[in-house]
Each structure stands twice: as C-alpha cells, then as structure tokens.
Amino acid sequence: MGLGLLIFLFVVVVVLFSSFVTVKQGTIAVVTIFGKYRRQLSPGLSFKIPLIEVIHSRISIQNRSVELSFQAVTQDQANVYFKAMLLYSVLNHDEETIKNVAFKFVDATNLMQALIRTIEGSIRAYVATQNQANVLAQRNEIVMHVKEQIDKVLESWGYHLQDLQLNDITFDEEIMRSMSRVVASNNLKAAAENEGQALLITKTKGAEADGNAIKIAAAAEREAAQLRGQGIALFRAEVAHGMTKAAQEMEEANLDISVILFTMWTESIKHFSENSDGNVIFLDGSTEGMNKTMKEMMSMQLAKPKDS
C-alpha cells in the first residue's frame, strides 16, 4: 500500500504540474480537445484541463520577414531578376483569425511556400504588362499592385502584408550593358548640348561686348572730332577777329595793311622752323621772293572788295 500510494501521489503531482502552461510574450497558444479547437491562451501563466486539453500550436503575433529571389519576363521579352524582402504578421488577435492561422495550413513550411508563390505570381503578372524600360521606374507601383492583389487572400489566411521592399532589380548582362551605353550616350549628348549653350553664350556676350566697345569708341571719336572742329572754328574766328581789329587800328594810324601780312608771313616761317621736327622745308627767302609773296597777298586783299 505504501508504494502504491507513492505512485498515485507522483502521478497526481505530474498531472497537476502539467495543468499549468506558460505562454511567452508575443505568442498565443491554441488549445484543442480531442483534435477540435477549444480556446486560445494569452501570454503568461495559464491553466488547462490535464490529459484533455492539448496545446495544438503556438502562434507568434510578432512581425516576421522573409527574403525572396525570383525572375519575371516583361512585355518585350526581357528577363528581370528581383530580390525582395517581405514583412508580414498575424492580422489581429480575434478568435477567427487565430483559427485561420492555426488550421489553414498543415505547417509553417506550406504557409511560407504559398505566401512566396502568391507574391511572385502577382509581381510576374504586373511585370508582364510592362516594357523593360519602365520596370526600374515603377518600383512603388509594383509594391502597391502586389498589396492590392494579395491583401484579401492573406486576410483569409489570417495574415496581413506589412511591407514589401524590392531591394534589387536587375536584367540580363547584355541588357545591362546596353542600358549603360544608353545612359552614357545620353550623358554625352547632354554634355555636348551644355557645352554648345555655354559656347554660344560666351560668343554672344563677346560679340555684344565688342559691339558696345565699338559704339563707345565711335561716340568718343565723334565727340572728339566735334570738339576739334569747334576748337578750329573758334581759333579761326579769333584769328579773323584779331586781324580785323588790327587792320582797323592800322587804318586809323594811316599805316599800310600789308605790314600785317608781312608779319603773318614771318611768323609762319618762324613756326615752320620751330616745329618742323627735322623735316626740310624749301622757302624762297630772297627779296624778290618776298616781294612776289607780298604782291600776291596784297592782290588777294584788294580782290575781296571787288568780289563783295
């Protein structure tokens, strides 16, 4: 009897301890009775009916991620290679959601296979409607298309797609080389256009500067010529005024006006000699030459009243 009692007590203790279940934070335990869903246990210490209630599975309600690598074909038959990161989680803590997560798939491997193939199929279907030149620029459009297509499917499984990141999009090596050549040629074209515009602007500005300089020089020359003309006119007017006054004074003094002409003649010769700067000037300095010059000047003086 003593041994049997000990065995009985040991069994009671084992059963009692097996009635307590610890559920980790971020996890929900699904309890079944004879294979049928019974209830769910929240994180912490919980009690279950020993030998009857069984922990079917423990479901993580934390975010989970998986990396994808697959290939798609564009409308113009170009191969596109994708590397993506998928972030998903359990939709919510509702009982129906937890039941779907626990019983829709046999195990996590089958769930992951279905999830990856669904996303790959959605991306391939979208890429098949696009040309290869548009794929790189439509990264966000692809993500939005996938989320719109599979959100309802994932909800029926009890999951929600948090994020899909297309980290790398590449093409066949030959296509990548041709795309690089296109980019390089476009850059060269843009550089040539910029250089042409810069050269045009430089030449235009240079021509404008030359034109402005010519205009300024012409205006300055015109003003200088005008001033020179005014100076010469003033000089001549002063000379005429002086000669007229001198002639009047000579007449009033009953002196011969030819003396003025003689004086101007001698002053001219003096000016020639002082400012000739080494040049040779031939003048008839004889008495006959002077008389001849005086007569010519007097004849010009006497001829003026007749003309007037």
UniProtKB/TrEMBL annotation:
- Pfam families this protein is in? Band_7
Q: Which GO terms of the cellular component aspect does the record hold?
A: membrane
Looking up SUPFAM superfamilies in the UniProt record yields: Band 7/SPFH domain (SSF117892)
Q: Which SMART domains has this protein been placed in?
A: PHB
Localization of this protein: Membrane
First-listed, main subcellular location of the protein, grouped into a coarse class: membrane
Q: How does it sit in the membrane?
A: Single-pass membrane protein
Q: Does the keyword Transmembrane helix apply?
A: no
Band domain segment(s):
18-183
Q: Which UniProt keywords apply?
A: Hydrolase, Protease
Give me any GO biological process, just one: proteolysis
The name on file for this protein is Regulator of protease activity HflC, stomatin/prohibitin superfamily
- State the species of origin: Pedobacter hartonius
